[in-house]
Amino acid sequence: MGIAASELCRYVIKPTLVYLGRHCASAEALLLGVAASQSALGSALHDRRGHGLYRIGESRHQALWDEFLAHDPELASLIRGLASQHAFLRGPHLELAVNLRYSTAIAWMLIEQRALPLPAADDLLGHARIWRQIFHPQGRLRDFTHAWHTCIEPVMAPES
């Protein structure tokens, strides 16, 4: 069993997006859907596709730092601030599995790097298309929607 969707959103995704200055309802929904699709909200934190909630591979993680974040030192410093001080230096890819806010920031940067327009927060197929394009090119849109309906929809309580 993974992390409760409502808690993942409330305590990890939303605060991370706010910290990065990128918060919006659509970004929250997209990251939640990606986590559901990639790892069933963290029910397993490693497989052949990558590490953590978002299944980010080591080469993609490294390339993001080298090709995107290296060109924006202020943003890179902000994201580096989420990583563990010593553990990051010894095993930066391990942070993707053990540090939820760091892995969420990296997942968001993979999305931001592509500069794709975000669909509306309730556009499940729009989010599925972004997921497939960025995180799982061999994935099917119905895989994303199934993960949403299975992992997220039943446990998300409406905000009051």
TrEMBL record:
Q: What is this protein called?
A: Uncharacterized protein
